[in-house]
Write a structure and sequence with these properties.
It is a single chain. The protein has 91 residues and is of the alpha+beta class. The chain has a domain at 7-68: YefM-like domain (YefM-like fold, 3-Layer(aba) Sandwich), CATH 3.40.1620. It has 4 helices and 3 strands; from the N terminus they run E-H-H-E-E-H-H. The chain has a 3-stranded mixed sheet. The longest helix is centred in the N-terminal third of the chain and has 11 residues, at 20-30.
């Protein structure tokens, strides 16, 4: 599926309301469909299978698993902390 959004893949809210079935069909067969509000991107309609696939991919393990599987784990990288405690920051 092509993730680039062309003008044909973009709908105003009014167009999307009037042609919701077409928006859904295009999302299922031609890729994500952008719905704009006031000329700015507001939401994207995507195929449910694509959405589920991206959600599964993003939820494998936790942060600890991620760190343990890092290619840098046994690379010999040395990390040292700066001495002196917290630094002050002006906001």
């Amino acid at each position: 599926m092509d993730t680039k959004v062309s003008q044909a893949d973009s709908w105003t809210v009014a167009q999307a309301k009037a042609k919701l079935s077409e928006v859904i069909e295009k999302a299922r067969h031609h890729g994500p469909q952008v719905i704009t509000r006031n000329g700015k991107k507001a939401v994207v309609v995507v195929d449910a299978a694509l959405w589920e696939q991206t959600q599964k991919r993003d939820r494998k393990g936790n942060f600890a698993d991620f760190l343990l599987s890092s290619p840098l784990r046994r690379s010999g990288l040395k990390v040292t902390r700066l001495k002196g405690g917290l630094r002050e920051v002006d906001l």
